[in-house]
Amino acid sequence: MNILLVCSGNTCRSPLAAAILSDKLSHTDDFADTVVQSAGTGAWDGTPASEGSYLVALERGLDLSSHRARMLTADQVQAADLILTMSSAHTRRVAELGGEQKVFTLTDYVGNPDGRRDVRDPMGGDVAGYRETATLLDSLLDLAIERMRAERRK
Question: Which of the residues 6, 22, 93, 148 has an alpha carbon 20 to 30 A from that of 34?
Fold first, then answer.
């Protein structure tokens, strides 16, 4: 399975979500074949992870030092089995690139547990905002894994 996480610049939310999800899946045998990647709808190719995401990842034992932003492409959309976005605007862009049958906002994919539509972008804020985003992503990704497990059993 190939999972693609998408945000705007691919320096904050989606790389952090990809690192969290990859770590979670590495601790389970039923997703051993899963590849997790990230991209951005407005990314500048080659940009490193934001300082806030980098620091929060380190606090969680995750390493974003080698992350480099990638602009979302039709090829990435085509190669993905599941695409989870941070906002409805990102979902629309994925659909424009041919991914309408396999794209969801992360919150929609897990049933909108707290009524949120989007995962707020912490860019430009303090590290506390990045921690809040990471905590939200952590809980949403736990729910996403539960759904993926259930769908694999069908």
Answer: 93
